[in-house]
Amino acid sequence: MDFSISPKMQTILGMINEFVDKELIPMEHDFLTKEFSSLEPELEEKRRMVKEMELWAPMHPKDFGGMGLNLLEYGLVCEALARTPLGVYTFGCQAPDAGNAEILHKYGTPEQKEKYLRPVINGEIRSCFSMTEVDLPGSNPVLMDSNAVLDGDEWVINGHKWYTSSADGSKFAIAMVKTEPDAAPHLQASMIIVPTDTPGFNLVRNIPVMGHTGDSWHSHAEILYQNCRVPAENLLGPRGMGFILAQERLGPGRIHHCMRWIGICNRCLELVLERATTRPIAPGQVLADKQIIQTWIGEMAAQIQAARLMVLHCAWKMDTLGTKEAREEISLIKFYAAGVLQKVMDTALQVHGGLGMTDDTVIASFYRGERAARIYDGVDEVHKLSVAKRIIKEYKAKKGQK
Amino acid sequence: MDFSISPKMQTILGMINEFVDKELIPMEHDFLTKEFSSLEPELEEKRRMVKEMELWAPMHPKDFGGMGLNLLEYGLVCEALARTPLGVYTFGCQAPDAGNAEILHKYGTPEQKEKYLRPVINGEIRSCFSMTEVDLPGSNPVLMDSNAVLDGDEWVINGHKWYTSSADGSKFAIAMVKTEPDAAPHLQASMIIVPTDTPGFNLVRNIPVMGHTGDSWHSHAEILYQNCRVPAENLLGPRGMGFILAQERLGPGRIHHCMRWIGICNRCLELVLERATTRPIAPGQVLADKQIIQTWIGEMAAQIQAARLMVLHCAWKMDTLGTKEAREEISLIKFYAAGVLQKVMDTALQVHGGLGMTDDTVIASFYRGERAARIYDGVDEVHKLSVAKRIIKEYKAKKGQK
Amino acid sequence: MDFSISPKMQTILGMINEFVDKELIPMEHDFLTKEFSSLEPELEEKRRMVKEMELWAPMHPKDFGGMGLNLLEYGLVCEALARTPLGVYTFGCQAPDAGNAEILHKYGTPEQKEKYLRPVINGEIRSCFSMTEVDLPGSNPVLMDSNAVLDGDEWVINGHKWYTSSADGSKFAIAMVKTEPDAAPHLQASMIIVPTDTPGFNLVRNIPVMGHTGDSWHSHAEILYQNCRVPAENLLGPRGMGFILAQERLGPGRIHHCMRWIGICNRCLELVLERATTRPIAPGQVLADKQIIQTWIGEMAAQIQAARLMVLHCAWKMDTLGTKEAREEISLIKFYAAGVLQKVMDTALQVHGGLGMTDDTVIASFYRGERAARIYDGVDEVHKLSVAKRIIKEYKAKKGQK
Amino acid sequence: MDFSISPKMQTILGMINEFVDKELIPMEHDFLTKEFSSLEPELEEKRRMVKEMELWAPMHPKDFGGMGLNLLEYGLVCEALARTPLGVYTFGCQAPDAGNAEILHKYGTPEQKEKYLRPVINGEIRSCFSMTEVDLPGSNPVLMDSNAVLDGDEWVINGHKWYTSSADGSKFAIAMVKTEPDAAPHLQASMIIVPTDTPGFNLVRNIPVMGHTGDSWHSHAEILYQNCRVPAENLLGPRGMGFILAQERLGPGRIHHCMRWIGICNRCLELVLERATTRPIAPGQVLADKQIIQTWIGEMAAQIQAARLMVLHCAWKMDTLGTKEAREEISLIKFYAAGVLQKVMDTALQVHGGLGMTDDTVIASFYRGERAARIYDGVDEVHKLSVAKRIIKEYKAKKGQK
């Protein structure tokens, strides 16, 4: 075992941390109180700087303009970027574009790659991923209602989706729809690329989430597909392979999310330390002198360390043995890191008292927005059951062999 | 011991529950997505209905137009009203007016009562309570910076306050300021009534709290007092008694808050039951069929029951023995009920999955806004320490007697 | 609502607390390090004192020599007695005799009452309750294997039981066995009185529990019934009503247990206070001066208060509306109070550090023995599910009516 | 980063796991119900087998007959051995001998090494470590009362120690006593080797711990040093360096303990899986089919994984950068792994229901004995504070530099 980080990565992370501190954290106040679109011109300039520093699109292949980092390396980058909500966007690795690009890279036709992948990686356009159904649990594919039928050389799509993040302003959506209703449950869906200006692609609303309707990249839309027609060649990957591809997309995506959460935890701890070492509570005393606060700092440090090593280990396993071999670890980190995140955010808020409730720090925004960590990409409970079933199955198999 | 609820209160609570269900819950969607002031005309009509039903101002004295309920009875009313964020406002018992009215009733001069108390209880005007300092912990009175000096027959007030809830639109503030800098620490502050149109009373901003700036009653302001002059007779209560009065104000206020939190818990449990019994998760199965959800429902029920009985017991003790005798119980319920509230809200949100994050239910609003329950009126930690010190002191005293 | 305790009960509780302090706590060291039977002569003398004080058998009917307290009153007595592991035994209200007496009083024939009930209540003999099966979950009656068949005027009993508490030294067992294999699942079992000197009643062993085999009243036996024959008239209650009677026995028994746990919590808190106020940690400082310890004391106080009020409320409901109406509350207190107990014991042990692990205080004994609180009479999980199912059912019924 | 385990270690761990399964777990029932000394002959035979397999004394230097593993490698061995309470003893790496040997190896004179170290490593004799004082907290060295004064060429030792583990049957103790009362607080104590047959070395009692007095290696003694005289050359290491050496001893010792706890967790999980997959709860259903049990298995797996990676990372850091550089990590793992251990043991017990309380499985023994994990070598709370103080100090230093 060797837990050391390569000199190359140490350099990269040092540059990123400095950039985040100097260029992005000062923009947070605007992020917290203004519309996202009003920040875009300034963010465009920051993106230009990132490209010049050759830190753009760290997880994308080099031949498409990225840095070509492996998953563990990119995980460390996510951690550094997530210290601010503006990090991943500015470095060209924001969801859902990152995941969409991955699918396009692996399964897209040469034409799809030129038309959709390249401009997404370049940050020229944005895209969205349209999977979650309004009234149905995402964890059970059998319950999908949206569908597409081939009418001549066109797919005709009908369906009702929501939580299509960043649809507002996107150039295209990757829609997950049922195309093979008679196949086995996991082989019924396909992915289809839908330009958002296609008639029948209706963005009903940006959903108000935690009091915030959002706009542009920073939004979650409800989409109604009504006889929405796209060319047959917009099929992404083989017919009926939608769920398989979505699962593949989710694996690395969970590393991205989990390392992002660790980064948020790190930021929360920094804010706690700043607050605790400066906030007077009695003449000559600050919060950091008190056992309760010290206890919390100790516990935060332990939880962050635990979650961080788990996620890095999982990334390493995926890099070396592949996603499939790491399915148990992926489920473990998903719920474990989300739990740590929530505890750390909650403690950070409490240390800040009334100030923690306001948008004068970034904590309240983390607290309300990242509550979703325990929900998206599979609620905690589904992952716990999934891990357990796998462990039980392995135990039985091992016992049977004896 | 007798845990029964009187027939009178059962009738009152039945009426309130029905009113909340029929008149207020349907308005919640607007509350969650619009400015508060845009709801005020409709709420004015609801308030008229409440007055006609003779359920107005339940905790205020009958001779001022209230129902004259005792603390335990009013606690039960709070519980019923808190099922919706619009409850207390519509029934004329919203903070901070309720607490202000109590102080005015006990300590106001006849002139102050006519000018300020009566219209507040009638719901004709609103008021605010200006105590919390921007950079100083509320729990340590020595650290107060705002002050007033008597200049002839006028108080000249200077200071910087925030979290002055509902200042926006208020007719007057009760300001807590240092007037006796040379007195013992707890005897330095006084309360002064400050009409909000007084020059030098500057509402700097409504503070963005959890992403929401708010307006009117539903807001928290930052106030700058700059050579703000009010007549000497605006002193409320004796000089130097500000903290004593504020403590007195807080005692019953904590019952109001805690029972309100129980009401929010009850609503959360209702929403969980509705969701669990209707949300399909597999063909022929709903969430409520699953052990995980059932376990949560069992745990929610236990926590709510525990917190509820503790608060009612505390209210009973205050009604029978007085606030001072119940100080330990008041601290216990403050942090215990706040903890239960947070767990229950969190579980309710989780049961709703992605929907729980949106403002299509009231849960996300509870989740972010009521996070403050563990902070205002004394953070959890201060109450735990306070209880412990009292218990330790009692133990030593008891042992010394032996 | 009225949370006051009657003067009569205050007097009784005062006497009990004094007796426990002066007569029983000094015997604890022997209890913790010697066999129980070696303490019995001294305990016999204490029992005599209790009878003279007219505090004997508090929950048993007056005409059988008890005090005739109702459930709430007796709950308060349990709380006081449980401050020491020797309390309930010394006051003639130890399990399983207490529960057996209740069944015999309600369902015994006049002959059974004279022969078994009277001497049990008098403390002349002890008894045991033989229900739990070795390999089968107690919560599912269908899975019972032990059985009895009527052969002429004798029951012939076969079966394998364990956790038959206090069988060692008992004069008779009440055995729960299947007698009606063809009836509906809940109507298959009956209760039969089995004198322990009956051939075929084999006490295989006292089971080592938490490192302690135990003896006499303080033991848990494994029993093998092998063609064990008793007269037909030893049937207790109607045929096939075993489970119904057992349930009835369990209801009040849970109040006894829960209030006993509260008493243990109270004792733990006393020990924490004694330790914290005397243990030096630095020159001039004791544990009680530290925020961590204070926080724990505050949390213990809150948890104990919460659990205590819940149990008393449940007892009141059973006294006024009957056991059946209080089924939900009974399940709630069972798991909630057990959870509080475990947290409080754990904290008390931690405050005592290395000493807490030794048998130089009573805490380690509580810690290991009372871990069973979350298991016996229905594991936590079963009660949570049971409460939830009832709540869900009520919700559906209520909604259906609308 | 590379999380792979070397082929050499995989082979060693495979052999150990098989040995534990075949040779040691079958002896557990005797361990749980008999005196330890009665097992020693059989254990001697097992030790002989271990030596033949060349797996003896894995962490000791090769030139003293050990395997010479580094800390990370030995940590993995601890994990494998700890699946049974008999593991470390049988492989010659039991506490306190392991730590004593380390000190002797580093600081012993050549004569001390021959006389004490060699036979300890060979398993010919046992030793104990006499540091903890009866009434004083171990975490504060200033509070040590035991002392030694040099009288001619002899140390005269007086003092009262307890928790001197395994003193019963030991050939010598390493006693920590104050020798330099006028030095700075951390430089007052020295280590002295005291043969246990020295007059004045009085083993007062084996302390009953969790109901178990214990004997031989499996015991904790109270020791009274009364004018106990040993030759001056029995000083171990330099005068006044006792605390420094003890700290050095504790660092690696915490890795040993923590990895041992992970091993106990692994065993608990195995027992849970066996129980869950075989225990019927309804016709055709076993525990493992239930969501509650599955959820627990998922949570156990995550907690074990988190703690395990943290401890291995810490061992790696100590191996590569030294103990001093890893002080923060050492404190983190101490309380974090202890917390995971307790949760896992508790869950394992709960899954076993009544059986879990008995000594028919090893769980109850783990549960009561390993409760001490949160206490010895520094209570959780001390480590949390220690970590926090270090983090706060680093934060201030870093900020000061900017």
Structure write-up:
4 copies of one chain form a homotetramer. The first copy, chain A, is an alpha+beta fold and 402 residues long. The first copy, chain A, folds into 3 domains: 7-122, Acyl-CoA dehydrogenase/oxidase, N-terminal domain (Butyryl-Coa Dehydrogenase, subunit A, domain 1); 127-236, Butyryl-CoA Dehydrogenase, subunit A, domain 2 (Beta Barrel); 244-401, Butyryl-CoA Dehydrogenase, subunit A, domain 3 (Up-down Bundle). Chain A is 51% helix and 16% strand. The first copy, chain A, has 12 helices and 11 strands. In chain A, the strands form 3 sheets. In chain A, strands 2, 3, 6, 7 and 8 form a 5-stranded antiparallel sheet that branches. In chain A, β7 (214-215) and β8 (218-231) form a beta hairpin. The longest helix of chain A is centred in the middle third of the chain and has 37 residues, at 242-278. The mean pLDDT of chain A is 95. Chains in contact: A-B, A-C, A-D, B-C, B-D, C-D. Chains A and D meet through α8, α9, α10 and α12 of A and α8, α9, α10 and α12 of D.
Layout: helices, strands, pairs:
The structure is a homotetramer of 402-residue chains.
Chain A lengths: L6 H18 L3 H6 L6 H13 L18 H11 L5 H4 L6 H11 L2 H13 L4 E4 L16 E5 L2 E12 L6 E7 L10 E7 L5 E6 L7 E2 L2 E14 L3 E2 L5 H37 L1 E3 L2 E2 L4 H31 L5 H31 L5 H7 L10 H22 L1
Parallel strand pairs in A: 1-4
Antiparallel strand pairs in A: 2-3, 3-8, 4-5, 5-9, 6-8, 7-8, 10-11
Helix pairs in contact in A: 1-4, 4-8, 4-9, 6-7, 6-8, 8-9, 8-10, 9-10, 10-11, 10-12
